Amino acid sequence: MKIAGSAQLPFSPERTYDLMQDPVLLAKAIPGCEALQKTGDDEYSLKMKMVLASLSGAFDGKVRLTEPDRPNSFRMVVEGSGKIGFMKGDGLLRLTPKDGGTEVAYEGDAQIGGTMAAVGNRMIDMTARMLIKRFFEKLSAEPAA
Amino acid sequence: MATTVTNIEKLVGKRIRRKEDPRLITGTATYVEDIKLPGMHHAVIVRSPHGAANIKGVDISKAAALPGVAAVFTGADITGVGSVVCGADLPGLRKPVHHILAQSRVYYVGHPVAVVVATDRYIAADGADLVEVDYEVTQAVTDPEKALAEGAPAVHPEWPDNKAFVFLQKGGDMEKAFADAEVVVKQRITSQRLVPNAMETRGVVADWLQAEHSLTLFTSTQIPHLARTILAGQLGIDENRVRVVAPEVGGGFGSKLNVYAEEALMGFISRKIGKPVKWIESRRENFLVTIHGRGHVDYFEIAAKRDGTILGLKLKLIQDLGAYHQLLTPAIPTLSVLMMPGLYNFRNIDAEVIGTFTNCVPTDAYRGAGRPEATHGIERMVDLLAAELNMDPAVIRFKNFVQPDQFPFPTATGLNYDSGDYGATLQKALDTIGYDDLRKQQAAARLEGRLMGIGISTYGELCAFGPSPATPAGGWESATVRVEPSGKVTIHTGTSPHGQGQETSFAQLAADELGVSMDDIVVLHGDTSVIPYGIGTFGSRNTAVGGPALFYALQDIKEKVKKFGKMLLKSENVVFENGKCTCQVSGKEVTFQTIAGAAYRAMQLPPDTDPGLVATKFWEPSNFAFPFGAHIIVSEVDRETGQIEIKRYVAVDDIGNQLNPLLVEGQVHGGAAQGLGQALWEHGIYDDNGQLMTGEFMDYAMPRASMMPWVECSHTTTPSPVNPLGVKGVGEAGTIGSTPAMVNSVMDALMPLGIRHLDMPLTPEKVWKAINGAA
Amino acid sequence: MIANAFEYTAPQSLDEALGLIAGGAKPLSGGMSLIPMMKLRLAAPEHLVDLARLKELNYIREENGELHIGAAVTHYEVESSPLLLGKCPLLAETAAHIGDIQVRNMGTLGGSVAHADPASDYPAALQALEAGIVLRSAGGARTVSAKDFFIDTFTTALEPGEIVSEIVVPVEPGLTGTSYQKCKHQASGFAVVGIAVRARRENGVVSLIRVGVTGLSGSSYRAENVEAALQGVEPTGEAIRAAAGLVAHSVDASADMQASSEYRKHLASVYTAKAIHAALSRSA
């Protein structure tokens, strides 16, 4: 499933870029993230718990940040699997200065499998949108420098 | 002595409500799920969440340790059980070994990997959650055209081109047809994957009796006898020690014309644990692991003269087979090829079928099985040709129909159409709907900018499967008529009706023949320990093949009744009518019931006659039967939203003689619902990784009663010469006829915008995009 | 399709229920959303408290110029209530669009509102009606406006321990016309878009208009830009079309296989225009 959109952050592209590479901040911003640990140059292990309406599930997975091109773009891959299924999001994030801040445009694919996929396409799309929105809201709340 | 001859009212041909209905609509019927046996265990199957993966390891320790879990089996534990059987054969067919549990690899989402058996279903499900499978995910391929491309991932590594077979069928002289052609129209047409979705999912109860070395297997199937033969072979049990029972079966539509891995698996488990075991398929599993239907990508080319005369048809058919062959998977597209010519009088065809493996659940027979795809193709092509030539779609059909004096009509694909008057059926449909006036209304609507469409489909189908040489496992059918000493009648049919209504229609037939009340007749089916071997229910064959078997068995009974009548009335001049033997001379009578008693009491027997009153017939048809019809749908497309409204639906079907027109109408309505489902709503969509994106009713749009138009049914009647009842078969007709009528109607509506073709399903967004793309 | 084990309580009183919920039990009402999730084992609550049987939550009455509807009232009861059909036809009309007859016989108003599925039907009507939603916990009750209640996808103003206990709708003079127009998802029956409009025409111009939107995005909302464009304006076809065209402006529209974001936005404007026309035609 294609996922595309954009978010406006109140920082310079450089600051925005650095925030999104900071494992401590990522751990705070990724919705439901319970632990994020560096396991390689551009790779982190991830434990998250997703709660959405009555649905809840724990996921083990990883986050990878690749194709670095500070402050213009990078690729983020988040994947996780748990008892209720697995998910993978793979997107290219492009940063451009806009209105004194930075617009982050993202474009990529979201996949879902296992029992979780039985909730329906509509729910998956809405959930992905909401998780992305929450991620950027958390980041926006960081200090400007 | 004077006698009053009372002619009992004949029941055949009457609209009689189903004897089956009271138990069905009051929830008192017994389905597999209702069967409870002492000591019965429950199985839940662990299935692959991936479309393609290597299994690195399966850890069952936690599941096995759960209190209440009796056993956990993985692929390695399954020994001495044969693989899932494919009954179809084609030259050069590649048959992957289809283990009942995955071995080292999984090939589609839902592939069974392990099974947990416990004292109740909740514990079994808890146990299944505890089975840990380590998968190494590999690249899947789900689109058959992508699977055929260079460098595509191999579904089965041993066959990197993903081709299971290439099947060619040629008839006539295609080169000449295209050389003579004044116009050639080409179109790529798809028939999307559909999920059959019987109301009752599959289910199995297996009960091994060690002392008797026998297995009883209750399963929701359309083919209990074939299932017994196959399962006995798979499990290595003598066939006469396997009893298969199809209890009440809540719909099949072809999806239960199969023998699945779970049936052998439950037999294996019951034998291993020494207890009965039950497995009931969840709806989610039904979407993922019960066969799908259709799955075609077709490239058509039609050659014609400018006057509309069709010269020939070429087809390249890419069949999405899925990862394995189920019972008939590779055979289904060959049925499409057989029906390519439709009702038309052209003799040149050239078809290439490429059976393609994908990382999807197998496709197989789904109501119509190959014939809806073919009919949709030819009916779309005829409409496209008419548009190209600026001809009326009704006119071009009349011009090309096989004519009544041409029957029996040998087709370019080697069939022999039995009987028909195709023009009369279309004319009746046109008259019923008021075609000429509709075209005027349409012209006026178009001037107002409204998108009104009139779609015609004149379908033909081949059914009543079928002569034995044309089927993988015999095409005959059996029937036993057992008259009890009281004169009550028990009928055994080798067919396995599951909604078709033969408990009613066969009782009507027998009541008329024997002159007894329908209430005195019980029709039994579906239990191999009771019923003589039969082939089962599929391919619109119950009435057209099972019916004649019953008819001839009834004739034998009547002969024997007459012998007893002559003996009891002490006269040679005796007739058997209206449930009585009557002496034409004395007027003396003896009732059927009295004769039945005498036949069993056997105080005295007619010459060369045995006691008892039972007859069994196995009947072999000489040919298929070929029903046909004309369906016309009037629709209007909302320009603003792309939404389609069905204004009218007229169906004129010719299925030969009818035993019960109410049942016939029910079949047409139900068939039309499924056909419209394909045209407008349903689509089994896999993503590139092998996930079924429409794997539940939240995304898979099943037709509902509220979405259905009223289908105005009527008939013409051309009896089939193939069988003594003159019947043809109606189980699939509605599904075959409706789909192209609907699509042709929408395409006709969109014609002023220059839109030529859209693939099914015609979702509002697809139509809206086409309208906006065209604007 | 077999749920995990769980405990089930059918409490005798609302207080007992709220006490159990305060202790962490999960409220169950009609179960139309929760039970399927449990059967798929995507939800595994340990303890369910059944609210649907509580008489204290099962009423529809008029008091002091307001309609009070208990949370355990079923969709069918909303759809068929003579009181609502007479005094708040929008809510009855909306309920009639929910699911199918079986769902409407089981599902409840409170359960649906609390669940806050972004494609459920009620939120559009409650937004247009400027309804109040009464939230109750062991500690007391508070009323939140529909606008403040629906926050995001499955996210509401409900705090832990709180349930939706009642919906309050002001009774309006007969001058107001309402309409709910829905494009049904062909598979699920949920709203691809659903538009509820409450409007009044006086002296040839629109004197009141409220537009509630569901299905289009992650949460229901009031289309205040549409309202502003028509307030005090003569409702010509052109004016309505132009105003309706604003409904999806700067909205992050949802997408699924049935309808892309682009198509959903288009449908939203078409259905908004339909709903405005229908509501105004019913404004006497």
Secondary-structure map:
The complex is a heterotrimer of chains A (145), B (775) and C (284).
Chain A: E1 2-9, H1 13-21, H2 23-29, E2 33-38, E3 43-52, E4 55-69, E5 73-82, E6 85-98, E7 101-113, H3 121-140
Antiparallel strand pairs in A: 1-7, 2-3, 3-4, 4-5, 5-6, 6-7
Helix pairs in contact in A: 2-3
Chain B: H1 21-25, E1 41-47, E2 53-59, H2 61-65, E3 69-74, E4 105-106, E5 112-118, H3 121-130, E6 132-137, H4 144-148, E7 163-171, H5 174-180, E8 183-191, E9 203-209, E10 214-219, H6 224-235, E11 242-245, H7 261-273, E12 277-280, H8 283-289, E13 296-304, E14 310-322, H9 332-338, E15 348-357, H10 371-389, H11 393-400, E16 409-410, E17 416-417, H12 422-433, H13 435-447, E18 451-460, E19 477-483, E20 489-493, H14 502-514, E21 521-524, H15 542-569, E22 574-577, E23 580-583, E24 589-591, H16 592-601, E25 614-619, E26 628-637, E27 644-654, H17 661-681, E28 711-715, H18 733-750, H19 764-774
Parallel strand pairs in B: 1-12, 10-11, 14-15, 20-21, 27-28
Antiparallel strand pairs in B: 1-5, 2-4, 2-6, 3-5, 7-15, 8-13, 9-10, 9-12, 13-14, 16-17, 18-26, 19-20, 19-25, 22-23, 23-24, 26-27
Helix pairs in contact in B: 9-10, 10-18, 14-15, 15-16, 17-18
Chain C: E1 7-9, H1 14-22, E2 26-28, H2 34-39, E3 47-50, E4 60-63, E5 66-70, H3 75-80, H4 82-87, H5 89-96, H6 101-106, H7 109-115, H8 122-129, E6 132-137, E7 140-145, H9 146-149, E8 150-152, E9 155-156, E10 163-170, E11 177-184, E12 191-202, E13 205-214, E14 221-222, H10 224-230, H11 237-244, H12 261-281
Parallel strand pairs in C: 1-3, 2-3
Antiparallel strand pairs in C: 4-5, 5-10, 6-7, 6-10, 8-9, 11-12, 12-13, 13-14
Helix pairs in contact in C: 5-8, 10-11, 11-12
Molecular structure report:
The complex is a heterotrimer of chains A (145), B (775) and C (284). Chain A is α+β, with helices and mostly antiparallel strands and 145 residues long. Chain A has one domain (2-140): 2-Layer Sandwich (Alpha-D-Glucose-1,6-Bisphosphate, Chain A, domain 4), CATH 3.30.530.20. Chain A is built from three helices and seven strands; from the N terminus they run βααββββββα. The longest helix of chain A is centred in the last third of the chain and has 20 residues, at 121-140. In chain B, the strands form seven sheets. Chain B has a seven-stranded mixed sheet with strand order 3-5-1-12-9-10-11, sandwiched between helices. Chain B has a five-stranded mixed sheet with strand order 7-15-14-13-8, sandwiched between helices. A four-stranded mixed sheet of chain B has the order 18-26-27-28, with helices on both faces. In chain B, a hairpin with a 4-residue loop joins strand 9 and strand 10. Chain B has three domains: 21-27 and 476-619, Aldehyde Oxidoreductase, domain 4; 32-138 and 201-249 and 256-289, Aldehyde Oxidoreductase, domain 3; 370-378 and 389-463 and 623-774, Aldehyde Oxidoreductase, domain 4, CATH 3.30.365. The model of chain B is unreliable at 1-5 (pLDDT under 50). With 284 residues, chain C is of the alpha+beta class. Chain C has three domains: 7-50, 2-Layer Sandwich (Uridine Diphospho-n-acetylenolpyruvylglucosamine Reductase, domain 2); 58-170, Uridine Diphospho-n-acetylenolpyruvylglucosamine Reductase, domain 3 (2-Layer Sandwich); 177-281, Enolase-like, domain 1, CATH 3.30.390. Chain C is built from twelve helices and 14 strands. Chain C has a five-stranded antiparallel sheet with strand order 4-5-10-6-7. A four-stranded antiparallel sheet of chain C has the order 11-12-13-14. Chain C starts with 6 loop residues before the first strand and ends with a helix.
